[in-house]
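Protein in question passed on here:
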Amino acid sequence: MKDRFDLIVFDWDGTLMDSERKIVRCFEMACRDVNVVYPGDAAVRAIIGLGLREAVDRLLPGEDDAIIDQVTEAYRDHFLVHDKTEMEFFPGVLDGLKQLEGHGYMLAVATGKARRGLKKLLDEWQLHDQFVATRCADEAFSKPHPKMLEDILGQTGVASNRAIMIGDTTFDMEMANNARVAGLAVSYGVHDRDSLLKHDPVDCLDSFEEVRAWLM
């Protein structure tokens, strides 16, 4: 597919990194801290990929702004400081990123994470040089708004028809459609294949190794 695309934009959580268990646990602890009813693991999995404030709004639709703010801050505190749940990259990701870069692709990230959280991971894994651009939900509108992709396209100078967005959620596929960028879905993250296929991705793959092979 190298003749079709110059830029690959990856989602982070559920696409590159297996962070579902940590995200779910931190939302559960945040709800406990603020003494609101935890909506359940399935509800949390459904909102992974959104910006944090948008995610909490969807999880707790009946709560007022003060409670939403408290849960948001409690989640951030657990995720960045207190919770020690380990996160790992999905099999083949680190080697695959290097291979894709070596094949001539520019690589970027568009994530629902905040900049502070992404920077922490890029620092820990020494991956800053792997990506030509990164965009976070606290720097633009949350997915599925196209702003993050539009910013990355503007920064790199790549036309929308020469870029592809890879992600595990319907939010990723909707954002790609809204930005008129091809969307490639992965089924090993948090949203199921049937939901992803409703948004007309160019394909839906079952492992990162399949992603690497499809692109090369």
Observations:
- The first strand starts at residue 7 and ends at 10.
- Strands lie at 7-10, 17-18, 88-89, 106-111, 133-136, 163-167, 182-186, 203-205.
- Residues 65-82 form the longest helix (18 residues).
